[in-house]
Amino acid sequence: MRIIKLATISFGIFVSSCGLLKKQQQGFVSPTNFEEEFTFQTYKGVIGFDISIDGQMSQFLFDTGADLTLIQRDSILGKSTNYAGASKRKMELGEEIIPSLKIGDVNFQNTVALNGDMVGLKEQIPNFGGILGQSVISKVNWLIDYPNKAIIMSTNSLADNTFKSIKIIRQNGNNPYTFLTFRGKEYKVVIDLGSSSVINLPTDSKFAKDVSATVSLKENVRERYTLGGLQKITEQIGVIPELSIGDFKFENVEFNINTSSQPRIGINFFKDYQIYIDNLNDGVYWLKKTEE
Predict the structure, then answer these.
(1) d(CA 95, CA 81)
(2) Which of 101, 185, 199, 217 lies at a CB distance of 3.0 to 4.6 Å from 108, suitable for a disulfide?
């Protein structure tokens, strides 16, 4: 078995709001009614699975924090622009239309995508193809059973009465934001399932300042992969004794404070949960804790 030592991931791709929603919505899905089930792997906790781009199969990471899908290309195709990522770093990327992107038997056609050479990430993930962003994710519903590493992708409603919804707002296109409650105060955070962090807070954010005033911190040095490649960072880390999101309470939650674009909760925040993303019904998010 090949062992992959992967730096933590905090990717994200932030596109100027001008015309973003139109780009995310461009293209169509066939068939128009389906339910596709498949399993996934994880890389530092981040979900990865096989996708076929114009007949060539490769591994993509699932990233609700990415405005658009990003294709690994050794050289840039199409008109290029500088784009910002989760760490505020920038990278030059091209833009293209993908005629066919298939997940199982489901075909996403004429999808807008960015492209570039993701040095530092492509070497760590076998047969790496890119990042699956909101230009694909927002077009269908997703039921992610994280503990059992299984996904149902569908045009149908998938939640039952054992799930509970959490408050969601949409800003900057289809990116989902919710609210964490800590010591009686609410803090807005992006749900970034492409981040391997549990909770990541920008150094200058109100959330980081309030947490720092009540929780013991220690210094940590590590490698992080963000847009623009690998970087070694120094950050502050700690554990929040208790917080909540909607009706769900979380205890002893790890967090880090470093240079980043916005407060976010990553995929490891939900490691014990099923996550249902109901994109075709006002973009509601539903959660259910998996029974131990």
Answers:
(1) 8
(2) 101
